[in-house]
Design a protein that fits this description.
alpha+beta, two-stranded antiparallel sheet, 2 helices
């Protein structure tokens, strides 16, 4: 019996078996589906003044950091 039958199926497309390295994740996806899902997420990391770096997912929050903004 081969090891392929013990690998989980992709939770996004349900078409292919997931590689062993990706099978241990919470929601295992194949490489193609994982790439599609990762490209949908938009975020940026910005340094705060005299502080640490912060992750921003909303561009409006990032605009509020500039004290010299006009609008």
């Amino acid at each position: 019996m081969s090891e392929d039958c013990h690998l989980p199926i992709c939770t996004h497309c349900y078409a292919v078996r997931v590689e062993p390295q990706r099978a241990k994740t919470l929601r295992p996806t194949c490489m193609a589906c994982g790439e599609k899902l990762a490209r949908q997420v938009k975020h940026t990391v910005a340094p705060l003044n005299k502080s640490n770096y912060m992750l921003f997912t909303d561009p409006a929050m990032l605009k509020q950091l500039n004290p010299k903004r006009t609008t």
